[in-house]
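Lab notebook: predicted structure, single chain.

Context: the supervisor wants predicted structures on file for every construct in the current expression panel, including those that have not yet been purified. This is the next one on the list. No modifications to the sequence; it matches the entry in the shared construct table.
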Amino acid sequence: MSRWLAIAAALGLAQAAMAFVLFKNDDGQALRWRLDDLDPLVHPNVVNRDTRVVRYYLAKDAWSAKNAEAELNAIRSAVGQWQSVPGTILKFEEAGLVPPGVDINGDDNTNVVYWVKSAAANGAVWVNNERTEISGALAVTFPMYFDDHTIVEADMVFNGVDHRWFADYSNSFSADNFVEAVALHEFGHFIGLQHSPLGAATMFSRTGAGVGLAVGLLKDEVAAAQAL
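Prediction complete. Output recorded below exactly as produced.
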């Protein structure tokens, strides 16, 4: 049986603690892609069965018409950070661009990353065929998984209604949200990580606007990627 898990990044302040967190079932199996023992039911559009690489698609419109390419490149940079961790089996490939108007869909055998940019008449921000309301959240990742916690698909949505975005790392004065930092956090959920209690961690549940501290992986998160 397949299940959904929606995990959001929120806007706020941080405080310190320690340790990465895995989402485990009653048998102690962690949520992960299991590229080392690929399930035959995982679709080849989701994972390249020859190379054991997780494939993802980007919605080509990004958040803004003016800065779309930089925003997409920021997502690519976040992916690059995770797959550059030494000793991890996690690898990714961009499979292509998809047109605007995509949505969370756990049945299409496609890992998609996009911005939602329209709200309902009452201001609610709906995704997942209007089954999930994400108002206020910076972004939400939806891993779909089997009972043994094998991830079989994952979609990611950034909230382009309630929040503004920028992609220039050198812009230290922006009060908008830095795409790469939030994408780095969300791709942590994409690979199976839960929120960390460590305030400075990329995987902490809350982050401030601007470039901030969460733009790079800590040793804690490197260890987590190696464990998965």
